[in-house]
Amino acid sequence: AAAPTPAAEPTAEQPSAPEPAGLPAPPDVAAPPADAQKTASGLAFKVLTPGKDKEHPGPDDKVKVHYTGWTTDGKMFDSSVLRGEPASFGVGGVIKGWTEALQLMSKGEKRRLWIPGNLAYGDRPMQPGAPAGMLVFDVELLDFAPAPKPPPVPKDVKAPPKAAKKTPSGLAYEVLQKGTGTEHPKPTSRVTVHYTGWTTDGKMFDSSIVREEPITFPLGGVIKGWTEGVQLMVKGEKARFWIPAELAYGEKPTRPGAPAGMLVFDIELLDFR
Questions:
Q1: C-alpha to C-alpha distance for 94 and 113, rounded to whole angstroms
Q2: Which residues contact 65 (CB under 8 A, 6 or more apart)?
Q3: Do 119 and 170 belong together in one domain?
Q4: Model's pTM, two decimal places?
Q5: Residue ranges under compositional bias (Low complexity) (predicted)?
Q6: CB 98 within 8 A of CB 12
Q7: Which domain holds residue 258?
């Protein structure tokens, strides 16, 4: 079954379709000018508008930016400015050149970046539609804030406590917060949840709370333990599930990056239809 989790962390892949009318390329788009500053990694930059203070985002912070990107032949490939909507993402979840550059900036600052291929998508990008080689970005840092802290590891993460209820399949669960109403989702329902998942050694492997974004999915399209467990819930309820390996990804998952063995999830059912 498919994962209960959405795709990996945000990447620097912005929509790849170019806007109808691009913003004109900077005159120095082909190469960094002599007065550009360079870092040890090969990233070059120029400050276009100084920032308002001396605080910088950290690698785990979430930033809000406006940006436009060009290839060195002057072709614009993406722009939040043209879309009229700033982009928000985690500093550590984008291409290396952005992760480095953003940590040098302060709020209100605007910089031009020349990001070498090895700090962007490479000279032969594996990602469909990603631009190749050195990329040039004008980036304005509008705001930043610390990412939400991950929820604490449950004390009973190693095994279900005696008070936990068990179903014939081997799924164990405990209600943490009562919900409202009496209706339960069906296997065909689309549900919206917040969740955090841990392996039994207490390692968190995924959390919609840290991403600050609940997920919506068809209940029949996830691991068996989720399909069964979420049907036991009502809207507004929060429960902890101990999902045995055979109802999750197995002891030796075939899916790359999937966690092995019994998994523990805190799930809050926000809505379903």
A1: 14
A2: 80, 86, 87, 88, 102, 139, 140, 141, 142
A3: no
A4: 0.62
A5: 1-16
A6: yes
A7: 165-272
Q: Give the separation between CA 18 and CA 41, rounded to whole angstroms.
A: 29
Q: How far does CA 30 lie from the centroid of its chain?
A: 32
The C-alpha R_g of the chain, in whole angstroms, comes to: 23
The domain tally of the chain equals 2
Mapped onto helix, strand or coil, the DSSP state of residue 140 is strand
Q: Scanning the structure block, which residue is given the tokens 């840290």?
A: 210
Distance (Å, whole) CA 128 – CA 16: 9
Joined together, the tokens standing for residue 25 give: 């390329």
CA 67 vs. chain centroid, Å, equals: 19
What count of other Cβ atoms lies within 10 Å of the Cβ of residue 180?
9
Read off the pLDDT of residues 7-34 as tens digits, 9 standing for 90 and up. 333 344 444 444 446 899 999 999 999 9
Percent helix, strand, coil in the chain (nearest 5)? 15, 30, 55
